[in-house]
Design goal:
About 50% of the residues lie in helices and about 0% in strands. The chain is mainly α. The chain has one domain (about 25-125): Orthogonal Bundle (Cytochrome Bc1 Complex, Chain D, domain 2). The chain has helices at about 1-20, 25-35, 70-75, 85-90, 95, 110-125. Helix 2 (about 25-35) crosses helix 6 and helix 4 packs across helix 6 (about 110-125). The longest helix has 18 residues, at about 1-20. The relative contact order is 0.19.
Length: about 120
């Protein structure tokens, strides 16, 4: 019985670890440069390019930043950006918000996703 309880605790701790994984900001910056800078900027007062400038997006309703023509799907998604919604979206942008304009297929590696989110949290506030 004791082994069963320990195995259950280990399983639950392991399954939560991926969700709570702390990312590496430096690796996240490299991932952002590889995957995102073609379309996005992160600087305060930065311009929107193909995609919106991301400064201050955490805590904001999706599709609400001024100066960018968001899709109706993004504006109507009801999402408020936080780590969880960002993670879900970046894993599968088209699946999370069908009809949005972002063409990225998604970040599939959990470590790269955690790194990217760590960087965005720092770089956009």
């Amino acid at each position: 019985m004791r082994n069963c309880i320990l195995a259950t605790i280990a399983f639950l701790a392991g399954s939560g670890a991926a969700a709570a994984q702390t990312g590496d900001e430096a690796k996240g910056e490299r991932a952002f440069k590889q995957l995102c800078t073609t379309c996005h900027t992160v600087d305060k007062g930065g311009k929107s390019v193909v995609g919106p400038n991301l400064w201050g997006f955490l805590g904001r309703k999706a599709g609400a930043a001024e100066g960018f023509a968001f899709s109706d799907a993004m504006k109507g998604s009801g999402i408020v950006w936080d780590e969880q919604t960002l993670s879900e979206y970046l894993k599968d942008p088209k699946g999370r918000i069908p009809g949005n304009k972002m063409v990225m297929v998604g970040v599939k590696r959990p470590d790269q996703l955690a790194d990217l989110i760590a960087y965005l949290k720092k770089a956009t506030q």
